[in-house]
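re: ur msg from earlier - yeah i can do the MU-OXO-diiron complex, just paste it... oh wait u already did. ok heres what im feeding in:
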Amino acid sequence: MNAVEIKKDVYWVGVKDWNLKEFHGYTTPSGSTYNSYLIMDDKITLVDGVKHYMSAEHIARIKSLVDFSKISYVVVNHVEMDHSGNIPEIMKLAPQAKIITNTAGKQALEAHFDTTGWEYELVKTGDSVSIGRRTLAFMTTPMLHWPDSMMTYVKEDKLLLSNDGFGQHFACDALFVKDAPFDVVMDHAKSYYANILFPFGAQAEKALKTAGDLGLDIEMIAPSHGLIWSGKEEVGAILGKYCEWACGGNKGKAVIVYDSMWGATAAMAEAAMGVLQDAGIPVVKHCLSVKNVSEVMVDFLDAKYVLIGNPTLNNQLFPRVAGFVTYMKGLAPRNKVALAFGSYGWRPGVVKQIQAVYEELGWQTVEPFEEKYTPKSDVLEKFKERVKELIKL
Ligand code: FEO
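and the outut:
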């Protein structure tokens, strides 16, 4: 694939990682892209690098447009290595280039790489750098996704180079959202938010407010993963979704997540589902033996009720449940109402570990429910009463 002009003299020079199946614990069945942009102005500017193993392709794409000796600036919006992995190679090819980043970005680059001889122009929110006919304005967006994260706004093109923000782990032959099925792209954007940015809703809300305060007029959002949002309608749609996801609201939905060894916890999950359906509550049920944690987390974005079921194994949480609870705790969903349930054979009490996580996350809860071996019909009736208590909260 050649470099693609996305605005006059602004080129996509990124790479598509079709075979990526996993991104630090996030299952990515549709691969990903590491987008990088080259701005051909008086001071030629490269924005963001790519993962180290795709460096050759990235460099060839840049070379198809310009000799590296002509590059004046390399903007590092974020130092996580999917975007900075080949920055050392870039800097070897363009030692004259100055890196534009923020203080946290410089510190992170120095912590990752041998940065001897690199020169910096450090920026913060509200700062701008003229590159000729264009002005680059910067907005630091700490924790979207790391402390060093920032976005670059190309004022004359009304173009926001948003790095991780508004991205999707989605490789396809299209480069623009308008050339792909919109709902598919939005589903990838939702999954990306749920699995990458979920813990940082407050920071996302702040960034959206800052963009408003700075009066950024955005006609195109070009993230560093996935497809580019172009036109006011698409830009408005993804900004609206980020407002919705960041505020931690919900749609009154319930999500049941469980695993089962001999059917006991599965029977309880099914009983809970019946109660929720009878109450008219939209519900989804995920068995961790067939669903990956990344798929499950998407449903946490708009869920009010969370019910996690565990089959005790060797007096411990079942490994897939333990793994899910750890992953979910790190993503720290807010404002949930929760019940822990499960079965045991030898010793009760393991579901209290799930309850403890709920409490750490500040969720409302009802008392956990456990049964020895197989729950008979009278036990299932008692369990249903517990689920009814939950939905009264
Ligand atoms: Fe796409 Fe936080 O890196």
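cool cool. The mean pLDDT is 96. ping me if u need the other ligands too
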